[in-house]
Amino acid sequence: MPLIHRIDHPHVDGVRVGAADRKGNWRLTSTCIVYRIGDACIDTGPSNEWRLVEAFLKERKVKQALVTHYHEDHSGNGGHIHDAFNANVLCHENSHSRLKNGFAIEMVRKLTFGQVSLVSTEHFPDRIAVGDGIELQPMHFPGHSDDMTCFYEPERGWLFSGDLYIASQIKYMTREENVSQMIHSLRAAMQLDFQELFCAHRGILSDGPAALAKKLDFIVSLREEVRYWRDKGLSVRAITRQLIGKEDITALVSGFSMSKRNVITACLRSLEEEEEA
Questions:
Q1: What's the rounded Cα separation, in Å, for the pair 59 and 49?
Q2: Which phi and psi (to 5°) does residue 254 adopt?
Q3: How far apart are CA 130 and CA 153, in angstroms?
Q4: Contact residues for 142 (Cβ-Cβ < 8 A; gap 6+)
Q5: Metallo-beta-lactamase domain spans which residues (predicted)?
Q6: Alpha-helical regions (H) of the chain
Q7: Is 256:265 a contact under the CB 8 Å cutoff?
């Protein structure tokens, strides 16, 4: 499969890889971006796109791979990068075992992105030097996953956000996503002094804080709508149809591991946590 496109930025290299049709059309959920800054890459791309990722990284070899979170489209080539470039692979402590020993991947995700190349990983230090005087600060922002880590560059006002953002509105979630953590993480990220947001799926956003604010507003508002309809006595299924609509092919092909219902269920869990506190 040909490379989808390169990332055009004065100081950061990047490539988008993943599934595209013959006309080059692609979707956010079936592609992802590998960024390179100095001697480090941020995320590793899916294993079934290793040859494209390898060719990109050979242009300027990396010494370290920083994994934002364990999902296979972000961590898939960790072992390949370690073997090909003798690079250290770093991730949050919650996923050392996942990337060393493997984890369950739903069939549709396996078909889209492939398996994960296993690797022994290291902890993130407080600051990661990547060359040219640039240091990245790992920031643990769970919600999308329990290991979700962003990388903050305060001198240049950059935030490499992994899957913290993706889009300002949410129609689907996986079962593991945590709305309470997501709200807390978005609020914490918005306190950082940055401007450019490097999203692993959306690309580069010039006004990162505004993008995060839109997503936060959407989630908080949606949760309040869920509260309203729950208190009216509607079922989870009825609330889902009322606020997001009927389930579609996304839920069916994923065995409902990715669904609209999961969004409502996650909001209900968040409300219960808030009310019990």
A1: 16
A2: -95, 5
A3: 11
A4: 148, 178, 181, 185
A5: 31-201
A6: 50-58, 72-75, 78-85, 96-101, 107-113, 179-190, 208-231, 236-243, 249-253, 260-276
A7: no
CATH superfamily of 5-208: Ribonuclease Z/Hydroxyacylglutathione hydrolase-like (3.60.15.10)
Domain segments of the chain as ranges: 5-208
Distances (CA, A) of 64 to 58, 95, 141: 13, 17, 21
| Tokens 């930025």, residue located | 9
Burial level of 220, CB count in 10 A (0-12/13-18/19+)? Answer: middle
Give every CB contact of residue 15 below 8 A, 6+ residues apart in sequence: 3, 4, 5, 6, 7, 33, 34, 45, 52, 53, 56
Q: Locate 3 and state its tokens.
A: 């490379």
Which of 177, 169, 262, 265 has the alpha carbon at shortest distance from 219? Answer: 169
SS3 content of the chain, % helix, strand, coil (to 5): 40, 25, 40
What would the two tokens of residue 249 be? 């092919």
Q: Tell me, what amino acid is at 3?
A: L
Q: Which residue has the tokens 């609209």?
A: 260
Per the listing, tokens 């364990």 go with 70
CA quadruple 92, 101, 108, 58: dihedral sign? positive
Residues 3-21 pLDDT 10s: 789 998 999 999 999 988 7
| 32-43 pLDDT per residue, tens | 999 999 999 999
Indicate whether this model's pTM tops 0.90. Answer: yes
